[in-house]
Structure formats: structure tokens, C-alpha cells
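Customer escalation, tier 2.

The customer says the design service returned an amino acid string that "doesn't look like it belongs to this structure." They asked us to rerun it and document both sides in this ticket. The original C-alpha cells are below, unchanged.
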């Protein structure tokens, strides 16, 4: 919130493709409607048309009027649009998301990729061995742009560990698996927003931190370290879970 008590609200209006095309087209470019619309003291900061997808509008408004604007938008979109709200200072990530969804839609014959339409999709990688038995768990799930990963470790699948067994090497191998799954989901490591690290000896936290520096180039993700009595196999000393948002890291 700025010093004058205002906030920026980015609104993504996605076309409801079940509506009549003429209705969508007649509404798409009607900036005059937006200029009439903002209730209360809201004003338009930016307005972008994403052809074939919808509109992105950033409004500046008093913080205490944000609920009023949300309600009015939901009620006033005439059923042509599905609204999504982003209380943010920057609409560029929303625009990038639209461009990606548009490309996926065009490539896939108009059908959204599973996980992008609000349904969950499982993600696997050839670099990460599957569960011991089918149906036990998923390594990673994606809903929209958000991904969650199961705990990754250096286990060899036979009760032992890969590599030299040190905390540093186990952490590096766990993060290598995290990286493979994040990339399979369409992201990069800097899209990871949160790590949860489980250690059987909290004194190993420095070695885990050393391994972590090899995988992130931007701001480091949030991180929680927890000491536990044991992991799934006796030889394991490190396990790492990850969560994040695809496209949240700056792209160069």
C-alpha cells in the first residue's frame, strides 16, 4: 500500500468461450466501458487487450474499496468474462501467463493443458525414479501455475543412498531431483518459493545450505529446517520438499 492509502489491483478478465463470438468481440475493445466503470475512487492505471484471451486492467483505488471493486466487476462483466483478481503492483506476470496459456491453447487445438484450468495434473521426470508401487503417491502436482513436490532424497530405491552419503551430497542429489521435476512442470528453480528441509542431525544445516547455493540464482526461497528422528530409510539424513509458482521468477 502506498503512502496515500491506495493499492493497485490487476484484474484479468478471461473470455468465456461459451459466449457468442460477436458478444465477446464487441466487448473486447470497449475501453469506454472501463472508463465509465470504476466505482468509488478507482482509476485506470493500465489497460491491455490480450487478443483471443481477454483483458488485463490495473486499477488504483483506496485500500478500503477493494472489496467494492471486486463485487462490481463480478456483477458487471455481463457473463462474457471470467474474472480473476491479482492484488499486485505489477501486471506483467499476468500478461506473460496469458501469452503462455494462449500458446498452449493454440498448440493443443484449443483445449487447455491439464493443471492450467484449475484441475490438478501429476508431473514426473525420467531423472526421478517412480514410487515403489503404482498409486502410492505423486512426485509433483500442478494446479494452475502452482506446483507442490513430495519430499526428495538421495535414496537408491533399495534401502541405501546414492553417492558418498554425506549431508552435502544427499542435499545436492535431492535438489537435483527437485530441479528435474520443476523443469518438467514448466518452471525453473528460481520459481521455487518455499523449501522444507528435514534433517536427522540439525548440525548438518550448514552442508545443506552449501548445496542449496548451487541451485538458485535470484532471491532464495523461503526455507524451514526441521530435525526429525528418522527418514524413510535408515541411511537417509536429508529430505527436501518444494512449492512454487511457475513464471514467478524473472526471465532473462
Amino acid at each position: 500500500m502506498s503512502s496515500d492509502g491506495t493499492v493497485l489491483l490487476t484484474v484479468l478478465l478471461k473470455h468465456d468461450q461459451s459466449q457468442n463470438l460477436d458478444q465477446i468481440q464487441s466487448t473486447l475493445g470497449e475501453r469506454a466501458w472501463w472508463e465509465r466503470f470504476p466505482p468509488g475512487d478507482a482509476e485506470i492505471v493500465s489497460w491491455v487487450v490480450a487478443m483471443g484471451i481477454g483483458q488485463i486492467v490495473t486499477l488504483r483505488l483506496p485500500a478500503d474499496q477493494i472489496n467494492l471493486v471486486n463485487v462490481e466487476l463480478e456483477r458487471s462483466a455481463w457473463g462474457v468474462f471470467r474474472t480473476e483478481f491479482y492484488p499486485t503492483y505489477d501486471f506483467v506476470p499476468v500478461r506473460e501467463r496469458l501469452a503462455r496459456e494462449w500458446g498452449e491453447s493454440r498448440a493443443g487445438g484449443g483445449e487447455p493443458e491439464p493443471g492450467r484450468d484449475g484441475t490438478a495434473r501429476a508431473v514426473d521426470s525420467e531423472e526421478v525414479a517412480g514410487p515403489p508401487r503404482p498409486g502410492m503417491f505423486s512426485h509433483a502436482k500442478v494446479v494452475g501455475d502452482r506446483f507442490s513436490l513430495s519430499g526428495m532424497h538421495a535414496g537408491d530405491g533399495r534401502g541405501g543412498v546414492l553417492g558418498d552419503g554425506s549431508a552435502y551430497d544427499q542435499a545436492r542429489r535431492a535438489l537435483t531431483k527437485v530441479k528435474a521435476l520443476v523443469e518438467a512442470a514448466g518452471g525453473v528453480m528460481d520459481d521455487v518459493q518455499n523449501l522444507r528441509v528435514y534433517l536427522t542431525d540439525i548440525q548438518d544445516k550448514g552442508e545443506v545450505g552449501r548445496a542449496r547455493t548451487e541451485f538458485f540464482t535470484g532471491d532464495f526461497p523461503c526455507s524451514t529446517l526441521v530435525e526429525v528422528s528418522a527418514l524413510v530409510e535408515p541411511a537417509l539424513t536429508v529430505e527436501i520438499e518444494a512449492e512454487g509458482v511457475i513464471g514467478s521468477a524473472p526471465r532473462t
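Tier 2 assessment: The sequence is consistent with the input. The CA atoms of residues 27 and 78 lie 9 Å apart. The two ends are 28 Å apart (CA to CA). Sent an explanation to the customer and offered a walkthrough call.
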